[in-house]
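Weekly modeling sync, notes
Attendees: S.R. (lead), two postdocs, one rotation student

Agenda item 3: backlog of single-chain predictions. S.R. asked that every request posted to the team notebook include the full sequence so nobody has to chase files. The rotation student volunteered to paste the first one in as an example of the format we agreed on. Action items at the bottom.

Example entry:
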Amino acid sequence: MHTRLPCLFALFAAFGLAAAEPRAAADELHKVLYITHSAGYRHEVLPLSIQILEDLGAKSGWFEVTATEDVAELTAASLEQYAAVVFYTTGELPFSAQQKADLLAFVEGGKGFVGIHSATDTFYEWPEYGRLIGGYFDRHPWHQEVTIRVEDREHPATRHFGETFRITDEIYQFKDFSRANVHVLLGLDTASVDLTLPDVHRADRDFGIAWTRSQGKGRVFYTALGHRPEVWRDARFQRHLVEGLRWAIAD
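Predicted structure, as returned to the notebook:
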């Protein structure tokens, strides 16, 4: 009888190891690089956004955030440790041609890219970035309470909203934005705004608010929300952002 114990222990150990491996995979900690460099307008909410995103990562148990304004961090060697890059940026960031190539290679190789609010107000002189993120900022005709239509109620970043929801934020309009190139998650209900304002440029009255797209093997998630501190403190927005990030990482 005693001679069988080592075999039984070995068998139990094997089962225990097999059971532990899926848990380890599920609990994998994904590193996220949060770039907040402002080469144009600097949003006052940036420090709060860093704090909240770091807190969300800590509470989630599956991602941790490295926040920086130093774009020198974005190189092929540095990016190897990250599962996703998040931009809350403005203007022409001081990237070298090699850094631009490294960012595209990072995403196209299978990693995630997330843009928040003014990430579309970035890199106008780099067309490949516009294609990556899905469009460029073209003024914000409205800063008020609006109704948002949830166009994809199955996506993890939007299924918690219901059919519509109300929110007060700075609402962007976009150029070089087309539904042929992105999958729209959220759109503006135009009945909730004044379309006769002089800054309203889109003749098709199509104002996407959040969308996804693929870039090579990678995934891109963008949300135009996030200008106001109250939005960052809103649990609905926090879940929207975290689940968008999780989708981009393909976790």
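Discussion: group reviewed the output briefly. Confidence is low (pLDDT under 50) at residues 1-26.
Action items: rotation student to repeat for the remaining queue; S.R. to check formatting next week.
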